[in-house]
Design brief:
By secondary structure, this protein is an all-alpha fold. The chain is built from four helices and no strands.
């Protein structure tokens, strides 16, 4: 078996997934792109395992482990995305940069406290 064909296919899959992670704004599509990248890695693991004729089949065993981890990651990731969508009303990654409540910030000029003015005078 030639190693070039699966390696090129894995590189194309990985580049497609990388583009999806960097360019997409929807969190579900980002998770799908991460899955594409993991599948490219799995394809490389199996292809090199077959090419090297490993007696222990370590590449295939690591591929099964990666598939199990990816399934758990997708389950937890989808649960987080659904909860964020329920709370915020959007799954847009650009709008979800901070996950804290929109509480008023007390560091603005309208809430200057006397103790801050005293500290400023003492420092001067």
């Amino acid at each position: 078996m030639h190693l070039v064909y699966p390696a090129v296919l894995a590189a194309l899959l990985f580049c497609t997934g990388l583009y999806g992670v960097l360019a997409r704004r929807n969190a579900i599509l980002v998770l799908m792109s991460v899955e594409l990248m993991l599948n490219a890695v799995n394809l490389n693991l199996v292809a090199f395992d077959v090419w090297l004729r490993d007696a222990l089949h370590a590449g295939q065993a690591l591929t099964l482990f990666t598939i199990a981890i990816a399934a758990a990651e997708i389950g937890i990731g989808l649960a987080i995305v659904l909860q964020v969508h329920r709370n915020r009303g959007t799954a847009d990654v650009d709008r979800l940069r901070d996950l804290r409540d929109d509480a008023p910030d007390d560091t603005g000029p309208e809430t200057d406290r006397p103790d801050r003015e005293e500290k400023a005078e003492a420092a001067a």
